[in-house]
Design a protein that fits this description.
The protein has 415 residues and is α/β, with parallel strands linked by helices. It has 19 helices and 15 strands.
Length: 415
């Protein structure tokens, strides 16, 4: 049902719509009525394909947080089983397959992030962390085909955009990947059967997979369950959310420092500030709108608030305060700042491009050289334009501050 034709009564669904999380729902009014009767268990699935979740996952993590804050039960479903298959949704190639050890290591790392946003326990609204390997690893293939596979139409599966786009581009889609949507549908049915889970949430690209799970559960168990999706999140310039100049914006501090995370949000464009405040902070909607409407130099204060609020949720208040202090030291006073990302080099003599490459401020030696020739490189806040300059170990001393443009900085130290 379209949110413009029905106004929900439950706080969670109101939050979803008011803050911009809502895209579509398989039965908005019926779900609203279900939520009025008590705590509804709801899940989002996460395949363990990397050591950390990234900013592209953050909107759905915030949804789980709001779900818990409004009196319902979030379930984080870790794809210990489905990671062995790989979700083909809107990918141009097959994901690399991971073994059990790598999957377990990734799940353990990802748990650290969820614990910052959700409260886990045994209570009615306490979050649960489950692993679909619990039921997928023991499946008997022939029984699964007979009992579950017969409910899926290949014609319909081929029509889903996530599959159709791969075929239309004449890109290979393995039979292993083709099975993914059946396994995800089976997950939803198992979660309903085992834990009373009534709702699956996910990005709009998961709509087909979610509907499959709803149909399977209705056919096999004669039960009504629901699906709810979030919009595809892009920045105002049309780019997919979650990438910076240095790559993915990870949520684990071991992969991306809290300062770099803070700086990502501080660099938000003016047009996105209000939207991101509503999606990624818990500030009142009215305050988000007020801050997002600021113009000129005033919008920078709103971006600092955005960076502080998001970083405090992900890394803690102390990390957010420290990052802001470092930013002020770097940008307002020209200092080095204690939280700048630091990289170690070994040797007696270095070229400038090599140092900028080692500091992650350039993607290649060629681009580092061009950065210097363009006058966009600084060493200890002094512009350098000669890429042939040699830096001796004695010049580095206790640390050398490198800057690429006005917003990207790093420290180089000797190993």
């Amino acid at each position: 049902m379209n949110a413009t034709t029905y106004t929900p009564k439950t706080e969670f669904l109101k939050v979803m719509i008011e803050r911009g999380y809502y895209n579509d729902c398989t039965g908005l009014q019926a779900l609203d009525e279900k939520m009025q009767k008590g705590a509804v268990p709801a899940y989002i699935g996460y395949d363990a394909t990397a050591q950390s979740l990234h900013v592209g996952h953050l909107m759905n993590i915030m949804i789980l947080r709001w779900l818990q804050k409004t009196g319902h039960k979030p379930i984080t479903l870790m794809g210990g089983g489905t990671t062995k298959v790989g979700d083909p949704s809107f990918r141009s190639d097959e994901r690399p397959l991971l073994d059990d050890s790598a999957i377990a290591k990734n799940i353990a790392s990802m748990k650290q992030v969820f614990a910052k946003y959700l409260s886990y326990g045994e209570g009615t609204t306490d979050a649960m962390m489950l692993n679909n390997a619990e039921w997928l690893d023991g499946l008997n293939y022939l029984e699964f085909l007979r009992d579950v596979g017969r409910h899926f139409s290949v014609n319909r599966m081929l029509a889903f955009e996530s599959v159709k786009s791969r075929i239309d581009r004449e890109q290979s889609l393995s039979f292993l990947e083709f099975n993914y949507m059946i396994l995800q549908a089976y997950d939803f049915m198992e979660l309903y059967n085992r834990y009373g889970c009534m709702l699956q949430m996910g990005g709009s690209d998961q709509w087909g997979n979610i509907v499959n799970g709803i149909d399977l559960t209705r056919r096999k168990m004669d039960a009504e369950i629901f699906g709810l999706t979030t919009p595809l999140l892009t920045t105002s310039d049309g780019k997919k959310m979650g990438k910076s100049q240095g790559g993915a914006v990870w949520l684990n501090a071991q992969l991306l420092s809290p300062y770099e995370f803070w700086q990502f949000w501080r660099n938000t464009t003016d047009a996105d500030t209000g939207k991101f405040l509503k999606l990624f902070t818990e500030l009142p909607v009215e305050e988000c709108d007020r801050l997002g409407a600021l113009e000129g130099s005033e919008i920078n204060a709103a971006k600092v608030i955005l960076a502080n609020e998001v970083t405090a949720l992900c890394h803690g208040v102390d990390a957010a305060c420290s990052a802001e202090a470092t930013a002020r030291e770097v940008f307002e006073k020209g200092g080095a700042g204690g939280d700048l990302p630091t990289f170690t080099v070994e040797g007696d003599e270095f070229t400038l491009p090599a140092l900028f490459l080692a500091a992650g401020l350039a993607e290649s030696g060629k681009k580092a050289k061009q950065l210097i020739l363009d006058g966009a490189a600084r060493v200890n806040d002094e512009i350098v334009k000669d890429p042939s300059i040699k830096i001796m170990a004695s010049d580095i001393g206790d640390g050398l501050k490198l800057s690429a443009g006005k917003k990207r900085h790093a420290m180089i130290q000797l190993g």
